[in-house]
Design the sequence.
């Protein structure tokens, strides 16, 4: 239902819910694809001889392409048809997955990951836009977006478990072949279960705007990733500055075009803009803390990737429950208060993480992370509903792409910003705890992180090596607690922002329809007449 429609919307039937089940498949797969690849990196080094730089590109190039192309693909789906774009992208994703699975050189695998990124950029905005089309009733649409958010986060949580099982019995390429049966099922069922929709008044795609969009997003994401790895070096800062300049040029061109690539009037709606900021900041918290928790479980607690993944199952279960309940609660309670309350819960989780210790701290970390996950997960469900649902139907693809871009940038920003803070805290702790007798070159390597400490310890006498590893574990735990304190403060700030900025957005139940009939400008907030 368009945000300014006053007549009651038709309720979706069984075909729409079956179609939603199909749409969760590529969503789960895309999220799983990111986490599962980290487990395969050691095998890639052995079988393909990938260097450290090549491994970074294998990991990062997929995210670069997805982030850079989301806005273009979302708008393209509005023009050529969202189901058509989803089908084309799914076929390409399956083919690129086979190419990646049977790559024989690092260069071949990097090229396959580029193709996967191009195809992956078509999937997320298409699925969200189709959900908006299939579920016109606000209550059903909120629940549908909750299911979508659950499937996305479940893919992240299940990645280490499925990846560990596959790598236990098969070769590294098997992690890519997971996509093939999923895409075959989607291609077989899409024509029967998914409706087609395109903007009947859409104009031609502006190629210069598309290039400016890429030039704005790609350098920023690249710069954020470089900041996370190497700190504030000139290359990273220059890339972010260049992206900002191209972003300004992109905005100026969109304001002049009669048929822009991205309609900036979307941002004039209070619900759209406020939900977008809350989502970006919420994903910033997840991106930062997930990195530290997974490293703690494996490098400090000494758990295998599979066992660490099993310890994260409570967080996945909590996420499923929270993502399902949040839209139901939002039928009677304003989304602002649901988000503020859930963020208060995540604050408790962060505060619990500040109590982590190097030894016997797994239970504390898991419980704290579960509370964080439960508290943050409604942001994805309700935020996506507010962003995509507040846009007119013909702009659902573009609004979905903006939502996804905010998520990508939020995670990258969280890894870069909170990762840099954690790295600084680690180095500060190591500087005051370096064991006596540690050579200066080994101390420099150990100060780079836990992996560096492990490499340095391998060449030291047993007593010194043990002390060095203990000091590194304590320093990393200190960095985790530092990031948790900062995240707790940020969560409180985001909760206040959500409560204030979204306070006039009504519940999605009967009260929402009554408010729409009265012409509430916040509910109609797309900025379109």
Sequence:
């Amino acid at each position: 239902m368009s945000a300014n429609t006053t007549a009651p919307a038709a309720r979706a039937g069984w075909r729409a819910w079956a179609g939603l089940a199909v749409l969760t498949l590529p969503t789960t797969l895309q999220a799983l694809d990111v986490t599962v690849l980290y487990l395969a990196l050691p095998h890639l080094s052995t079988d393909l001889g990938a260097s450290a730089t090549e491994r970074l590109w294998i990991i990062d190039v997929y995210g670069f392409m997805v982030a850079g192309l989301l806005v273009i693909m979302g708008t393209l789906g509005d023009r050529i048809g969202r189901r058509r774009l989803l089908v084309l992208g799914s076929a390409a994703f399956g083919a690129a997955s086979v190419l990646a699975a049977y790559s024989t050189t690092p260069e071949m695998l990097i090229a396959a990951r580029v193709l996967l990124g191009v195809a992956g950029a078509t999937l997320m905005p298409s699925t969200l836009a189709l959900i908006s089309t299939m579920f016109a009733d606000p209550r059903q649409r909120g629940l549908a977006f909750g299911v979508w958010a659950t499937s996305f986060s479940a893919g992240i949580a299940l990645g280490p478990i499925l990846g560990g099982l596959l790598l236990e019995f098969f070769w590294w390429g098997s992690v890519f072949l997971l996509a093939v049966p999923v895409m075959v099922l989607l291609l077989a069922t899409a024509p029967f279960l998914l409706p087609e929709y395109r903007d009947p008044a859409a104009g031609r795609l502006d190629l210069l705007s598309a290039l400016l969009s890429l030039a704005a997003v790609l350098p920023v994401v690249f710069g954020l990733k470089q900041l996370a790895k190497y700190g504030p070096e000139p290359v990273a800062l220059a890339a972010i500055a260049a992206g900002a300049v191209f972003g300004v040029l992109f905005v100026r061109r969109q304001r002049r075009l009669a048929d822009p690539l991205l309609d900036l009037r979307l941002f004039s709606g209070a619900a759209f803009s406020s939900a977008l900021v809350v989502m970006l900041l919420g994903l910033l918290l997840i991106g930062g803390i997930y990195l530290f928790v997974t490293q703690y479980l494996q490098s400090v607690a000494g758990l295998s990737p599979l066992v660490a993944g099993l310890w994260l199952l409570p967080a996945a279960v909590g996420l499923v429950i929270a993502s399902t309940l949040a839209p139901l609660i939002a039928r009677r309670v304003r989304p602002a208060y649901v988000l503020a309350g859930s963020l208060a819960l995540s604050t408790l989780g962060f505060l619990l993480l500040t109590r982590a210790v190097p030894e016997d701290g797994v239970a504390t970390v898991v419980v704290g992370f579960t509370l964080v996950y439960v508290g943050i997960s409604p942001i994805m469900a309700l935020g996506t509903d507010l962003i995509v649902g507040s846009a007119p139907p013909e702009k659902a693809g573009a609004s979905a792409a903006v939502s996804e871009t905010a998520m990508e940038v939020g995670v990258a920003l969280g890894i870069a910003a909170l990762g840099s803070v954690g790295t600084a805290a680690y180095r500060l702790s190591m500087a005051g705890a370096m064991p006596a007798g540690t050579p200066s070159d080994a101390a420099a390597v150990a100060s780079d992180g836990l992996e560096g400490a492990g490499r340095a310890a391998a060449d030291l006498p047993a007593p010194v090596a043990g002390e060095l590893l203990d000091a590194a574990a304590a320093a990393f735990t200190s960095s985790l607690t530092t990031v948790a304190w900062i995240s707790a403060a940020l969560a409180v700030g985001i909760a206040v922002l959500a409560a204030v900025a979204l306070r006039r957005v009504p519940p999605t139940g009967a009260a929402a329809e009554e408010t729409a009939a009265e012409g509430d400008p916040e509910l109609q907030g797309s900025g379109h007449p």
Remarks:
- Confidence is low (pLDDT under 50) at residues 1-7, 515-529.
- The first helix runs from residue 14 to 48.
- The chain is about 80% helix and 0% strand.
